[in-house]
């Protein structure tokens, strides 16, 4: 999981790496005596990683693609059925509703998380550099989604949950947060934002710290207001970090599972049955691994497409200044 | 004069709003943690009578006793529990083994590979590096199911080896992150040592590795947090509580709670128990964790 959450970060720096590598090659002679015997040692050093890559990354990927064309229930060997799984996918209403539910969750969760995180990071940057405050903000990131989900399941309970009690105290009607069709996904998205917001804020905060203060002094001399400077200086300069954060959040949100599995379990009536939940229940509830593999591949294609689209739209590699 | 004064006042009003916002965010962030504690120290029956009380109601250690298995089944049921408990010590050990062994191995192997990619000159280096980076594009969901099948075929279900091995050898991100750092590091000391006749391995472990301790610690902390909180992979490959980590134990405990009338106090006690090790780690390494997260975004 951790690996894929970092896609964007690496793409961003990859270009820089190539550049640096070329410079290195120009200055060092690979056949100099100092590098004699390098090759042998290099292969020894990367051997564990290479085995891990081949056995637990490359092979499962290819095998996942293969399995998506088979009927496979784990206990008996897979049986080739061509495109049947994909045909089934096209007509599977639950799949399409899952996809819809997932996209709805991603949009809600990422938008909200981004707004709150950017504002929080900017406020932190302006007000305090206290590590204690940043530490407190990051607390939800340290606990597991299972813990977070369980706590909010309690706090959002329709009868005894403190949130509903407060709402009722202010004269509102109680809300069936996790048990009604309309509220299930927004509630889960809120829990997710609560859990991720601190992490995202700290990354954006770190980005803000790299902006030289002289830029703001110049803006202030020109008489620009705080809000105006935020819009015309801070946001454009933050673009690369924001692009990274959005891509990471989107990829993570598309694979949401833990919180849902301890709160709504995909219910009520599939209202929060996100893709990963559906894939899991197909594979481990009905042992339809072939079909689950086909859905995984579909999710993979969607993620790749979205990542490329986002990187292009956000022009991640450049900030507005150049 | 007046213009400056007005601006300053408007500015401080803005600052007031900013503080109010920040305090609001902090309250929302911290409150659930307090609510866990408050509920865990309450009595279930008193809870349903006074659900809004800001302090524990009917103060009791009962929920913790139930969760830790110190109460008898009858006592537990009488207090609104289910009789289920979490053998905390046992699951704690499982989590520590899973998280620390995974993290130590992956960071170590990534450091070795990063050294080969940043310091050694060998044919195929650039190709291998690009090949490794392609793994970043593949999301977990695509490899998780086949990896489960593989672990099952290897007969490693319900073993630490099966839980740890798939993630212990190769991490494209770790290798990339460390390689970037090493490329930016001055090689003067290393070259001097090589000229003095030190072997490559000696340079790697004696010079490069200590000089890279910053990013190594960052990756270790982030890796450990991720592994400690991991739920999906252990859920796939373990069904036996001899190897299950704490996250799974909490989920199982939650399922055993009656759905109609959950044992809220017991559940919150269990939640606290599950979150406590991470919170303790935070008390000790808070600053380091915060800096690591910032660092990982910038690099």
TrEMBL record, chain A:
It comes from the Bacteria. This is Multiple sugar transport system permease protein. Keywords: Cell membrane, Membrane, Sugar transport, Transmembrane, Transmembrane helix, Transport. The keyword Transmembrane helix applies. The chain crosses the membrane at residues 41-59, 101-124, 136-155, 197-216, 237-257, 289-309. Pfam families: BPD_transp_1 (PF00528). It is a multi-pass membrane protein. It is found in: Cell membrane. Its main location: membrane. PANTHER family: ABC TRANSPORTER PERMEASE PROTEIN, DIACETYLCHITOBIOSE UPTAKE SYSTEM PERMEASE PROTEIN NGCF. The keyword Transmembrane applies. Belongs to the binding-protein-dependent transport system permease family. PROSITE patterns: ABC_TM1 (PS50928). Residues 1-34 are annotated as: Disordered. GO terms for cellular component: plasma membrane. Residues 99-310 form the ABC transmembrane type-1 domain.
UniProtKB/TrEMBL annotation, chain B:
GO terms for cellular component: plasma membrane. One of its GO terms (biological process) is transmembrane transport. The chain crosses the membrane at residues 17-37, 96-117, 129-150, 156-178, 203-228, 264-285. The keyword Cell membrane applies. Keywords: Cell membrane, Membrane, Sugar transport, Transmembrane, Transmembrane helix, Transport. Residues 92-285 form the ABC transmembrane type-1 domain. Its main location: membrane. It holds the Pfam family BPD_transp_1. It is found in: Cell membrane. It is a multi-pass membrane protein. Belongs to the binding-protein-dependent transport system permease family. This is Multiple sugar transport system permease protein. The lineage of its organism: Bacteria, Bacillati, Actinomycetota, Actinomycetes, Micromonosporales.
């Amino acid at each position: 999981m951790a690996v894929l959450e970092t896609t964007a970060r690496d793409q961003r720096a990859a270009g820089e790496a190539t550049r640096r590598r070329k410079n290195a090659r120009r200055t060092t002679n690979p056949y100099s005596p100092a590098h004699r015997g390098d090759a042998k040692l290099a292969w020894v050093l990367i051997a564990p990683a290479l085995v891990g890559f081949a056995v637990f990354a490359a092979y499962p990927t290819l095998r996942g693609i293969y399995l998506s064309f088979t009927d496979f229930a784990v206990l008996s060997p897979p049986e080739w059925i061509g495109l049947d799984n994909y045909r089934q996918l096209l007509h599977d209403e639950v799949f399409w509703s899952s996809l819809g539910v997932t996209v709805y969750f991603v949009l809600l969760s990422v938008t909200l998380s981004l707004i709150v995180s950017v504002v929080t990071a900017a406020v932190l940057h302006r007000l305090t550099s206290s590590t204690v405050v940043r530490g407190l903000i990051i607390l939800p990131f340290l606990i597991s989604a299972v813990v977070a989900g369980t706590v909010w399941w309690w706090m959002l309970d329709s009868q005894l949950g403190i949130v509903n009690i407060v709402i009722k105290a202010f004269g509102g009607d109680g809300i069936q947060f996790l048990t009604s069709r309309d509220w299930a996904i927004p509630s889960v998205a809120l829990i997710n934002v609560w859990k991720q917001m601190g992490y995202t804020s700290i990354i954006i905060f770190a980005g803000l710290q790299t902006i030289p203060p002289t830029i703001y002094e110049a803006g202030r001399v020109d008489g620009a207001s705080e809000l105006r400077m935020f819009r015309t200086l801070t946001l454009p300069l933050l673009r690369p970090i924001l692009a990274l954060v959005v891509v990471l959040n989107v990829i993570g949100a598309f694979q949401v599972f833990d919180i849902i599995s301890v709160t709504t379990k995909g219910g009520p009536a599939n209202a929060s049955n996100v893709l990963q939940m559906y894939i899991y229940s197909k594979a481990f509830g009905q042992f339809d691994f072939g079909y689950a593999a086909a859905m995984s591949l579909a999710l993979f294609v969607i993620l790749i497409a979205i990542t490329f689209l986002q990187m292009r739209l956000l022009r991640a590699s450049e900030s507005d200044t150049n | 004069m007046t213009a400056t004064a007005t601006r300053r006042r408007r500015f401080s009003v803005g600052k007031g709003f900013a503080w109010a916002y920040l305090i609001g965010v902090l309250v929302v962030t911290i409150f659930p943690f307090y609510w866990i504690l408050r509920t865990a120290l309450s009595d279930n029956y008193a809870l349903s009578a006074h659900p809004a009380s800001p302090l524990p109601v009917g103060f009791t250690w009962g929920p913790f006793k139930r969760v830790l298995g110190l109460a008898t089944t009858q006592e537990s049921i009488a207090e609104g529990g289910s009789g289920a408990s979490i053998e905390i010590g046992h699951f704690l050990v499982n989590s520590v083994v899973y998280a620390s062994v995974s993290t130590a191995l992956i960071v170590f192997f990534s450091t070795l590979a990063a050294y080969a990619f940043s310091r050694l000159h060998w044919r195929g280096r650039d190709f291998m590096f690009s090949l490794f980076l392609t793994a970043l594009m593949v999301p977990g969901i695509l490899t998780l199911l086949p990896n489960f099948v593989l672990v099952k075929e290897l007969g490693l279900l319900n073993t630490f080896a099966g839980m740890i091995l798939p993630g212990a050898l190769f991490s494209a991100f770790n290798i990339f992150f460390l390689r970037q750092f090493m490329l930016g590091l001055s090689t003067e000391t290393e070259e001097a040592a090589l000229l003095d006749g030190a072997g490559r391995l000696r340079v790697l472990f004696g010079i490069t590795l200590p000089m890279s301790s910053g990013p190594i610690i960052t990756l270790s902390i982030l890796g450990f947090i991720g592994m400690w909180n991991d739920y999906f992979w252990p859920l796939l490959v373990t069904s036996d509580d001899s190897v299950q980590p704490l996250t799974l134990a909490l989920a199982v405990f939650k399922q055993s709670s009656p759905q109609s009338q959950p044992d809220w106090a017991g559940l919150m006690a269990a939640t606290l128990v599950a979150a406590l090790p991470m919170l303790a780690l935070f008390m000790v390494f808070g600053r380091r964790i915060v800096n690591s997260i910032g660092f990982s975004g910038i690099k």
